Amino acid sequence: MEMNKETRAFDFEIRAEDTENEARKGRITGTPIVFNQATDMGWYEERIAPEALDGTDLKDVRFLIGHDTSMVPLARSRNNTDNSTMQFTITERGMEIRVDLDVDGNPRAAELYSAVKRGDISGMSFMFTVDKDSWDDMDTDYPKRTVQHIKRVLEVSAVAFPAYPQTDLQAASEGTTLDSARASLESARKKAAEERAAEEAAKAEAEAKEAREERRRALELWLKEYTKEEK
Questions:
Q1: Rounded CA gap, 45 and 166, in Å?
Q2: 113 φ, ψ to 5°?
Q3: Which among 9, 88, 104, 199 is least buried, having the fewest CB atoms inside 10 angstroms?
Q4: What proportion of the chain, given as a percentage, has pLDDT over 90?
Q5: How far apart are CA 144 and CA 160, in angstroms?
Q6: What distance in Å separates the CA atoms of residue 1 and residue 58, rounded to the nearest whole number?
Q7: Within 10 A of 80 (CB to CB), how many other CB atoms are there?
Q8: Left (φ > 0), alpha (ψ -120 to 50) or beta: where does 23 sit?
Q9: With the CA atoms of 121, 124, 125 and 126 taken in that order, what torsion angle do they form, in degrees rounded to the nearest 10?
Q10: Considering the chain, what is the average pLDDT of its residues?
């Protein structure tokens, strides 16, 4: 079963610059994934751990606009090779990307490049799957989630409206930001409740066993004393 896809969008500095390559005259650079940035998900806070991209599947990552998978990608990274139209570097801050757009041969690429250069688009988002996370403060109204490992990054998108512009990071899952955030939190709370119930049941069983042992020891002592009296 495929893991739920999630997206994170940033309102951050995205830059456009000209290049000398005639086939790729528009270049966009930015940071779609940022480590250790607290994100207000409404129901919980989230951070992406610095080691979250260690061993992540980054073999084939597309660059899109607004996660529109029905359109032809504007760029693509295949094994992050030098001839890929999108390349990335993992730094202490996060994932830095460089996208070379064919602004002469692709009207959508030219439109996006112009919008970024004017500052009309300043957000990026990426779609990924998580295979390891952890939760803290689950007994509070505002728990904290840490994404410890990202299994795969599927695509990176330029977006016009990051949902949480006051932070570097925002979240959505299966394309629905708030619903997915609620579902993720409820799933974590259910798991935490089940774990607490299991711990309480184990504790109760241990206490019951100890009580039975105490009664057995008391009965053995009574029988011992009774036997002495009979003799």
A1: 13
A2: -60, -45
A3: 199
A4: 27
A5: 27
A6: 20
A7: 14
A8: alpha
A9: 140
A10: 80
